[in-house]
Automatic annotation (TrEMBL):
It comes from the Eukaryota. Belongs to the nucleosome assembly protein (NAP) family. Residues 314-331, 368-400 have a biased composition (Acidic residues). InterPro entries: NAP-like_sf, NAP_family. Residues 1-29, 142-170, 304-331, 365-414 are annotated as: Disordered. This is Nucleosome assembly protein. The gene is KAFR0A03290. It is found in: Bud neck.
C-alpha cells in the first residue's frame, strides 16, 4: 500500500557502486546508435575509459580518485545523451507517451484513493467483531457456546478439550497476556521488546486501528492499557499516528511522510523502561554536603515506538568533515525511520486483523511458508552444492587413507 521515503545524498555515492546513467539502452542491436541515426559517432558523448579508472584505483592518488568520485556523483540522474540524439519524429512520439503516462498516473491516484476508502469501509464492518474480540480477551464478556463450537470446527478439535479446567473459586478473567504473546510472535516487533517491556505490555488490553479520512491520509493505532493494574504509567491509552504524503510515489503507492506519538506519563524514573537509572553522589565543594542524583541514560525499548524519529528537513552548508558526519547521521536516521514505519505497517496489516493467529503461533507457520517459497530456488542450489561437496570430501578421504598420512581436517563446506 505504501513505502518509506528513501533519500541518498550525492556525497554518499562511491565510484565502485555508481549506477548506470538513466536512459542508457541495454542493447544497440536495433537502436538508432547502430542503424538509422543520422548523427555521426564523433558527435556522441564521450565515455570514461575503464582502463584509466582501473589504473587510478590501483595507484595511490587519492586526490584524483576523489575528483572522479565527485564527477560520477554529479552524473547520477543525468541524461546519457541518448535521447537528445534521437530524431525529432521519435522525440515527439516520446513526448506523447509521457502525456499518456501522466494521464495514467491520474487514474492510478484515483484507484489508490478508492482503495484507501474501501479499506476504511471494511474496517468499519470489522469493528463489531473487533469489539467482541476485545471483550473476550479482557474478560468483560464470555464467549457463547455457539462461538466455542464453531471455533472447534474450524480448528478440527474434538468436543472435549484436553486442556486443564480450573476448579478453583477464582475464575480466569479473559485471556492473560494475549497481546503481549501476539506481539512477541510478530518477527519484526519481537526484536524491539525487552524483558522490562514485557512486564508493561502484560497490561495491554487491546490495539485499535483507525484510518484518517480528513486532511492527510494515514492511520492511527491506539494501545489500550489496564489503568487500574498498570503500575508503570498513568496513560490509559497510547496512540501512534502515521501520515502519508498527499501525492503518490512513482510506483503509485502512498509514501510515508511522518509519524506522531504520544508522551508517556511514567509514574517514576524507576518505572520508565526507556531509560536506565544510575544513582550518583555529588559533593558540594563549599559545604561538603553530599547529595544523590539520578543519571538517566536512554536505552532500547519497544515504548520508543511512541517517540518516533523526526525526518531532517534542514539544509545548511557544511565542510567535508561535517558533511561526512551528517551523512552517517542521515543513514542512521533513515534506518530508524524505516524500522518505525515497518513496525506500524506490521501491526496494522498483520497483527490487528489476525491477532488470535499470532497469539497461537499459526500465523508464523504461514510466514515461514512464504519465506520458504521465496528462497526455494536458493535451497535447491545449496543442495546441489552440498552433493558435490560430499563427493569431494569422500574423494579426499580416500586419498588420505591411500597415502596413510595424517593431516589436519579441512573446514567442511557450509
Amino acid at each position: 500500500m505504501s513505502s518509506p521515503i528513501k533519500t541518498k545524498p550525492k556525497s554518499s555515492m562511491k565510484i565502485e557502486n555508481a549506477p548506470t546513467p538513466h536512459n542508457t539502452p541495454a542493447s544497440v542491436l536495433n537502436s538508432y546508435l547502430k542503424n538509422g541515426n543520422p548523427v555521426s559517432k564523433d558527435k556522441m558523448p564521450s565515455t570514461i575509459n575503464e582502463e584509466d579508472i582501473s589504473k587510478v584505483l590501483s595507484s595511490n592518488q587519492p586526490l584524483l580518485l576523489q575528483s572522479i568520485q565527485d564527477k560520477l556523483g554529479d552524473l547520477v540522474g543525468q541524461d546519457s545523451g541518448y535521447l537528445s540524439n534521437l530524431p525529432v519524429e521519435v522525440k515527439e512520439k516520446i513526448f506523447s507517451l509521457k502525456h499518456l503516462q501522466s494521464e495514467l498516473f491520474k487514474i492510478e491516484k484515483e484507484f489508490q484513493i478508492e482503495m484507501f476508502e474501501l479499506e476504511n469501509k471494511y474496517l468499519n464492518l470489522y469493528k463489531p467483531l473487533f469489539e467482541r474480540r476485545s471483550g473476550i480477551v479482557s474478560g468483560n464478556v464470555e464467549p457463547t457456546e455457539e462461538e466455542i463450537s464453531k471455533g472447534r470446527e474450524i480448528d478440527g478439535e474434538e468436543e472435549q478439550e484436553e486442556g486443564v479446567r480450573e476448579d478453583s473459586e477464582e475464575k480466569i478473567r479473559g485471556i492473560p497476556s494475549f497481546w503481549l504473546t501476539a506481539l512477541e510472535n510478530v518477527p519484526i516487533v519481537n526484536e524491539t521488546i525487552t524483558d522490562r517491556d514485557a512486564e508493561v505490555l502484560d497490561h495491554l488490553l487491546d490495539i485499535k486501528l483507525e484510518y484518517l479520512t480528513e486532511g492527510k491520509p494515514g492511520f492511527k493505532l491506539t494501545f489500550i492499557f489496564d489503568k487500574e493494574n498498570n503500575g508503570f504509567f498513568t496513560n490509559e491509552t497510547l496512540t501512534k499516528t502515521y501520515y502519508y504524503q498527499s501525492e503518490l510515489g512513482y510506483s503509485g503507492d502512498f509514501i510515508y511522510d511522518h509519524a506522531e506519538g504520544e508522551e508517556i506519563d511514567w509514574k517514576s524514573n524507576g518505572s520508565n523502561v526507556t531509560v536506565e537509572v544510575e544513582m550518583r553522589k555529588q559533593r558540594n565543594k563549599t559545604t561538603k554536603q553530599v547529595r544523590t542524583i539520578e543519571k538517566l541514560t536512554p536505552i532500547a525499548s519497544f515504548f520508543n515506538f511512541f517517540d518516533p524519529p523526526k525526518p531532517n528537513n534542514e539544509e545548511e552548508e557544511r565542510d567535508e568533515d561535517e558533511e561526512e558526519e551528517f551523512d552517517e547521521d542521515e543513514e542512521d536516521l533513515e534506518a530508524r525511520l524505516a524500522l518505525d514505519y515497518s513496525l506500524g505497517e506490521q501491526i496494522k496489516d498483520k497483527l490487528v486483523p489476525r491477532a488470535v493467529d499470532w497469539f497461537t503461533g499459526t500465523a508464523l507457520e504461514f510466514e515461514y511458508l512464504n519465506e520458504e517459497d521465496e528462497y526455494d530456488d536458493d535451497d535447491d542450489d545449496d543442495e546441489d552444492e552440498d552433493e558435490y561437496g560430499d563427493e569431494a570430501e569422500d574423494e579426499d578421504e580416500q586419498d588420505d587413507f591411500a597415502g596413510r598420512t595424517e593431516q589436519a581436517p579441512e573446514c567442511k563446506q557450509q
